[in-house]
Design brief:
This is Peptidase C51 domain-containing protein. This protein has five helices and eleven strands, in the order αααααβββββββββββ. It has about 220 residues and is α+β, with helices and mostly antiparallel strands. The strands form two sheets. Strands 1, 2, 3, 4, 5, 8, 9, 10 and 11 form a nine-stranded antiparallel beta sheet that branches. Strands 6-7 form a two-stranded antiparallel ribbon. α2 crosses α3.
Length: about 220
Amino acid sequence: MNKLGLFGAAAVATALCFSSDARATGDGDVSGAALDLVVAGTNTGNGGSFVTKAVKDALGWSSSEWLYYFSYSTLSADRWYDAIVAGTNLVEVDNINDVDAGQILAIDATGSYGGHAVVIIGEPIDITPPSHFYTPYRTGQKQWALPIADSTGSEHGQNASFPDSRRVNGVFTANIPGTAFLRLYSDEATGEILSYSWSVTSTNEANVFDQSERPFAIGELTVSP
């Protein structure tokens, strides 16, 4: 899978041109359903609620069908995390080479942090030096910009290459759906995903979290429309 610049800012802008009319409801396209919510500006609630709405739309399920498979009317971020690691209607993806559009990344709730969940909308983009110079560096690890759609109150960083679509004319609008980028770190030799950061642009080592600090998981749905 070629990950070099495959889904940069221009591709995100192109993806945002999708409309509900161009995609069949219930066709299983989770990334497309998430982008439909972004285009429509649908008020879904943040984190897990956004992901629940995107997945439910993609599958075309009624509320009763959803409850049969997932037990809750909506999955919070920590419940998405639990479902991924337990293999409940999802299979966990732990290697960067297997990460792709339509998968779900969920960060577990820990202490004062309530967790978060996003829909992945493109392949990871290699931003390891010397092609890019985003700090902090970690010896023996590669860095990746991960294209995502979510709803959040906190901006995912901002620059021309890796923008958060909710910042327009210098103003960030919170608590609405948008596209942005997380940063992932993987083992240089094996591809194992080791840690994440909320943004590509943050230079603070304290903002990079491994599994012992903030457990997170990526999952791919095993159920279909």
